[in-house]
Design goal:
Length: about 100
């Protein structure tokens, strides 16, 4: 959805599920969480630049080929401390997208 969709009224309603994948082992997901991961239309996840993302890797065994994925590449994770001026600038740009 773009800002235009919100203004033009062409945005579609949906349901957003926030699923915690725990310590990184698919066997520890609840049955409900595993079912949601398998059944959602779009799987969105955060990932560090250049990496698959821990959450995405954890749920990989549950995903059917061709699943629509929305990779949200986080500009910083542990490279620079949050107090650094560059940290805030990079995050602001990320949230503008």
């Amino acid at each position: 959805m773009t800002a235009f969709d919100a203004i033009a009224g062409t945005a579609r309603a949906g349901t957003l599920y926030g699923i915690g994948v725990g310590p990184g082992d698919v066997r520890y997901l609840t049955l409900r969480a595993a079912a949601l991961v398998r059944d959602v239309d779009v799987l969105a996840f955060f990932a560090k630049r250049g990496l698959q993302g821990n959450a995405r890797g954890t749920v990989d065994p549950l995903l059917a080929p061709g699943r629509t994925e929305l990779r949200l590449e986080y500009p910083v994770t542990d490279e620079i401390p949050p107090e650094h001026p560059s940290y805030q600038k990079q995050l602001a740009h990320f949230y503008e997208e």
